Structure formats: structure tokens, C-alpha cells
Amino acid sequence: MELRDYQVKCAQKGVYILKDKGIVYLAMEVRCGKTATSMEICKLYGAKKVLFATKKKAISSIKKDYDSFGYSDYFEITVINDESLHKLEDKFDLVIHDEHHRFGAYPKPGKSTKLFKEKYGNLPMIFLSGTPNPEGKLQLFHQFWVSNKHPFSEGNFYKWHTNLGFIKYKFDLGYGLITNYDSSINTMYKYYGILKRK
Fold first, then answer.
1. Domain edges within the chain
2. pLDDT (tens digit, 9 = 90+) per residue, 105-150?
């Protein structure tokens, strides 16, 4: 099997971003080949031991792509579902996280998001999602925060949001004046490119 032209171009750009920033996000439509593109980035990067975290039902197709495209000649891969990450003790030199939008909870990170950061935050990361922010761009904060190379000087969502200076409030009859977080994260694109299929 061979990569399509757009996958090759995306991988070439992606490895440049990964080497420069330590993070690259492949935000591509479903069935566009994010998995193979991410593995091509691993190959170009020179990774030797890769962790691929995904959903349980996707494990077999990821292993199939790994074998079909011949990436076993370049690096070793461990494919596991997110729920089993706590069992791993192996050392890796690069992490791919599939369906990365699942780490998009805010204003506080979820339990699995915190565990992922604790175990792998120092490693270079490739994020994959067809829907990086289905409920709003603020979902991107913790998706990048899982890496210790994230672009934020602030340690948490609240401080980051405050420092942007875009805090707005809205009145809710049941609760009174509440913070409206929907107006901030547009500056994300100043820090990191999110690669999309063109």
C-alpha cells in the first residue's frame, strides 16, 4: 500500500511542526487516512518505539495499517485503548493519540486526560481527530495541555482564560451572573497550526 499525495505532504509538514513544537495535530475528515499519515510522521521523525492510544474497536485496523504500509521496518508500535494506559510500564519515544477531542473537557481536565499528561507529557505527541472541537474551540485547551510543550504559560484553564482578557459574563435566571467561556480560544491558531486536509 502507498500513501496518497496529500498524506505525504501532510506528513512532511507534520514532522517539521513536531520537531519544532513537540506537538502536531492532524485534524482531518473521517476516512482521510490520519492513521497512516501519523505513522509516516513517526517514520520521518526517526521514532523507534511508538505508543498509539485509541478506542478498543480501532486497534485491529491500526495494526493492519502498520503492517500494510511496512512501518514495522522503521519502528515498533504498541497499540492500546485509553482505558488500559494505566497498565503500561514501557518507555516510548513518541505518542500518537487518536480521537483526541475526547480530552477536550473544560474548565477542568478529566481523569484520563490527567493520567495521560502524567505518564507521557514529556514525549513528542501526534494528535488525531476528525472533530477537534465539536462543541466549541475552548475544547482545545486541555487537548494541548496534555503535553508539557503546550503553548500556554498558565498552568490551568482559568488562569489562561483570564490572561487572554476576553472574560465575558452572561445572566442566567437560575444562577445569576455566570462566566461565559465561549469567546476566547481563537488565539490558539497563533501558537500552533492544526493540520487539515486541503
1. 5-195
2. 888 899 999 999 999 999 999 999 998 887 777 788 899 999 999 8
DSSP state of 122: T
* Whether residue 107 has a cis bond before it, omega within 30° of 0: yes
* Superfamily (CATH H level) for 5-195: Tandem AAA-ATPase domain (3.40.50.10810)
CA 173 – CA 194 distance, rounded (Å): 38
Burial 17-35, CB ≥16 within 10 A → b, else e? bbeebbbbbbbbeeebbbb
Q: Which residues of the chain are under the pLDDT cut of 70?
A: 161-198
Residues found in the chain = 198
Whole-prediction pTM: 0.83
**Which 3 state secondary structure label does DSSP give 128?**
strand
The Cβ of residue 77 has, within 10 Å, a number of other Cβ atoms equal to 22
